[in-house]
Amino acid sequence: MKNLDETPRSERNTENNCQEEENQLETSHNKSPLLSDSWKPYQRPRAIVKEWLLKLRCCLGAVCGMEWYGYAALGILTGFLSFLMDLSVSKLLRAHQWLYMKLEGHSLLQFLCWTLYPSCICVVGSSFSHSICPFSTGSGIPEVRAMLAGFEMPHYLSVTNLFTKYVGLICTLAAGSTIFLGKVGPFVHLSTMVGAYLSKLCSLVQTNKKDKAAGEMMVVAAAVGVASCFGAPVSGVLFSVEVMSSHFAVKHYVPCFFSTACGALTFHLFSVWSGDGETLQVLFKTNFPTALPFYPLEIVLFALLGLLCGAVSCCYLFCHRWILQVIKTNPIFIKWLTTEKALYSGMVAFLLASVTFPHFAGQYMASKYTMKQLLTSLLDGRQWTSESHNASVQVDPKPWLEWSSSGSSVYMTLTFFLLMKMWMLVLACTLPVPAGCFMPVFVYGAALGRLFGEGGAYVLSGLTSGQQWASINPGGYALAGAAAFSGAVTHTLSPALLAIELTGQFSHAVPALIATVLANARSRSGHRPSFYDAISISKRLPHLPSLKKACPWLPSTPVGQVLGAKAVQLQKTAGLVEVQHAVNSCTETQIPVVDSHESQILLGFVLRPELLMFLRHCKTETVEKHLDEVCCIHRASVLLSPHNTVQEAHSILSLVGTQALFVTDSGRLVGLITWPEMKRILEDLAKEI
Amino acid sequence: MKNLDETPRSERNTENNCQEEENQLETSHNKSPLLSDSWKPYQRPRAIVKEWLLKLRCCLGAVCGMEWYGYAALGILTGFLSFLMDLSVSKLLRAHQWLYMKLEGHSLLQFLCWTLYPSCICVVGSSFSHSICPFSTGSGIPEVRAMLAGFEMPHYLSVTNLFTKYVGLICTLAAGSTIFLGKVGPFVHLSTMVGAYLSKLCSLVQTNKKDKAAGEMMVVAAAVGVASCFGAPVSGVLFSVEVMSSHFAVKHYVPCFFSTACGALTFHLFSVWSGDGETLQVLFKTNFPTALPFYPLEIVLFALLGLLCGAVSCCYLFCHRWILQVIKTNPIFIKWLTTEKALYSGMVAFLLASVTFPHFAGQYMASKYTMKQLLTSLLDGRQWTSESHNASVQVDPKPWLEWSSSGSSVYMTLTFFLLMKMWMLVLACTLPVPAGCFMPVFVYGAALGRLFGEGGAYVLSGLTSGQQWASINPGGYALAGAAAFSGAVTHTLSPALLAIELTGQFSHAVPALIATVLANARSRSGHRPSFYDAISISKRLPHLPSLKKACPWLPSTPVGQVLGAKAVQLQKTAGLVEVQHAVNSCTETQIPVVDSHESQILLGFVLRPELLMFLRHCKTETVEKHLDEVCCIHRASVLLSPHNTVQEAHSILSLVGTQALFVTDSGRLVGLITWPEMKRILEDLAKEI
Fold first, then answer.
1. Cut 0.90: pTM above it
2. Cα–Cα distance between A444 and A532 in angstroms, integer?
3. Domains of chain B by start residue, with CATH
4. Which residues of chain B lie closer than 8 angstroms to A253, CB-CB?
5. B631-651 tens-digit pLDDT
6. InterPro entries in the record, alphabetically (chains A, B) (predicted)?
């Protein structure tokens, strides 16, 4: 219950906080053996520096709470990391393109350059992440969701993991559009790692708000991840709202916006300063006609596109679930993915690169474009077909040139692209490298929307044979398609706003939103898990909503059925021996106290430090005392009954923020639900699927 | 706990729902005396119509749940109401303008026209709303917030209120920029009334999900209110997230977006069809330069503007709290506002209109502009000062002409406008008519931003004497200022996104967001209540966050201290007499059952219908039976202790969605917290401020 009522108490004594903290720190300083050691050099300068630092902290603390500096630092750091990653990736991609161009005329050499470059990068990335931190592979969003739901997974938040994932992700992105993997998911994970590190730092500086800060920083970090990945502050916050398991605490709202604004600003500012542009601009500039973005009746077409995207996403998600199943059960895959990760990555990358070789099938799928160029070309505001008819008149550069370079019609190229990328994307997701799936799915959706838009424009201009439908803008359909398809695959709505923020086309907000809502409706129907849910279930992560989507009745299991071995308990009149036994046999912070072992009526709990104090007390005194004479028995605030379902227990545990919930049956203690216990329960339930 | 675990169970038996419901309805039809009456005419046609309706319901239910049709209807209805209101208001405003123009040359007649028209409209609006439904006056957002927090306030949701508020609001808006009041707040209230009505309708059609639907529809309706007021779907949802008291349930997210998209679409489509524009466009079109929206270093200026807006908002809020206090305590005001509402409205309106008369002080504050024209002129993308220097070159229309019509400099006009509107706005808020305060505050902020921007451009171009700062865009500052000031006054962040959605200027998202966050930080510091909080406290509405802002320690009162008289309870072995007494003396649905009146150990609760059944049972049988032999004693799922604070009890009550929480002390029943009891506790606490 701490996080609910801490604010007023902490606010009440803000005034004298500063002085107190200083005193505390000084006291701890004097106590700490390391700092007061007289053999350390420069005693005097160190004392001066320390004094200044304390003064600085007081000054900073006078403006606002320390956690706000943490949020700002989180935004700025993540924004900077994002910019740095984009810069390195673009340099690596340009190197590849330069080499490929230089080899013009030597087809074999070009083939080798085209295939070996991404393969080698993938091998490097895969072996690097595998050897340093195996937890760094994959998207990371399923793990972040489980952590946001309250479970502790310290492996996924280490600084080693941060470093490994960062380098690994650069490798993955540098492999380019051949491998067709993205940045968002791993970047959200990276951001939570930065957040976890900063919250540790904050709690070092700030002594009183430890447990609160960590959870809040995680929620903010999830938002900042998306925001600084694309410089899109609002959709970052919406993403954070969506990934929270069941309830978004409104008090996180302002920190989220503050931090995402810092992140987006940093990302944009660095882009400006590096010479990418004169001012803060959207990532993908579009040239949609502003006077007449779309006809009102086109809304129907956008709705149809949404349903189409939903249907295609179901197909994609089915393939994805199938490959996850194959990886887990097929002995060949198991062997390769456990022992020969680097080789597997190299081979898959080689296969994908061979298929996309521009002199081979690649010419029919615009494989020369990078991810960014692909998206820019698909979002172009002019009709490709009508422009290609009167190509002689055309003077300004056509960003979609690559789509018709093979000489075949753009409909053919787009269809071929969609068919090929479907299986390539499914295959690429099995690569054991840090990689996201959002951006590829976004581009895929844009291609789907483009095909729909171009087709629609062609059909409508043929049907009505008038000028009215001639100015239909297929770029708008690409935008809506991208939002709808990526929303349907991930079962979220924030892509709709993200698409708007990426392009700055607010005129298309309503169509994109409608397409995304309908695509979501189509893809969520019939208990189909989303992309991330499928990974959660496959990895057996403790994430309740995923379980619920796969098996809706599973979270309704009564708590009584799944409770583990009975927890250690103490009776009111416990003596030295019993307390000693309890302290040795369990590690919980809160140990329940009952009236007597026979009646089992729950009285409350004692804290572990108090028990240790009791033990010391007993050892010094001669007369043996009872537990209730020495320790304070705290009342348990919220009690559960064994008939409550697992889902209810989970909701209450996550909402009230206590360490442990006591399960009682008519006042009698039955069991104890803590976070580790809940994790065990959910992991057990996931096995049943 | 129902709303947390209902979904899986309900989903499990979706397949055979349709048939069952049909059977149920048919059975109830046969039972219902009204429908089976043989004297009613047209038996056969009515049966056919009924059959078709049932079939239609089955068909609709097969596509998606009935509640989704409800959400769509809510969006469409509210969008239509919003459009209709805008249309009527614009006609009334045009009539006033036409009359004023016709009287050109007759100053006295013009004065009478200028002052009497809004005064009469205000008198009509005030007396209309007072005589039909007194609950319809004011903004309505404080009441909506209290209802969203879980309290029932049926007076505020009646259909009479809907009608009264709608007509009253048209009157207020038709009084124009003289009275300077807005539409958002009352429209959110209107939308919740429509939502409450639709949820009743839905629960008639759909028999199984009654209690869930009402709460969900309210959350959605709050979002739809903002969305269809301006055709801004995303900021509507963000507003709904912000007004939720402490936790936003993520399951409301998709319904909110779906409904707001429908609302915004309807609003825009009707605008298009009525001939306002050829396509769906933003409400306030701007002409900001797209190539270079702003220099990166201008971010510092935007941050300063945010802090300035925060400071001015503190001043405004202080005045507003002062006038609320005066109204409550000053005997003259009390007398006028209780007995002579219409006269008071008329007089205040006359005073405000006299001051803004264009031949008097009005010429220095652009009083000829309507609210929309004011905002459009302030958001203009060109510098007013530089343009007025070389006025001879200028050919295209200057939308800010009115600001310099008096011949004095625009700085003077803007400053005068800001100074005058401050007290006028505070005075206008006391009018007993349905009226919002968001839009005036938004315009005020835009003027503040404009002044800052124009001043900044002048100073900077003077300082640097170069071309670099010459192209600074004061419209961007007006945008950020509007967002920041309205955000600071209402303590919300959604105005930042609303400003973007209203103008479609995504390039200014980051500056507007930064200004709004800083303004919020400034205005929230030091426990200052927001505009809505002040009204909540003044009206003694049961809204915990408002209380918390005014007195942070008040919600930390232990529940044990404020619990009312002990609730009626039954012992396990209760007989006929005790049960009869309990049924007569209390109206709760859940009646607690204890082991015995001596031990007071809580066993659970019985439901009221079961007690009535028990009474029937006892009357028919001869042998007297005990309660536990006949009734099922349900276990209480969540228990509280008397040491839990009011805030904790409120959070748990609102989160778990039960009817009643039992307060126990070591297993013994101490009291019962229900929603009415919580309302009483909060109202009592509000008296202490």
1. no
2. 18
3. 2-62 (no CATH), 66-273 (1.10.3080.10), 298-390+399-550 (1.10.3080.10), 555-687 (3.10.580.10)
4. 241-242, 493
5. 777 777 677 888 888 888 887
6. CBS_dom_sf, Cl-channel_core, Cl_channel_volt-gated, ClC
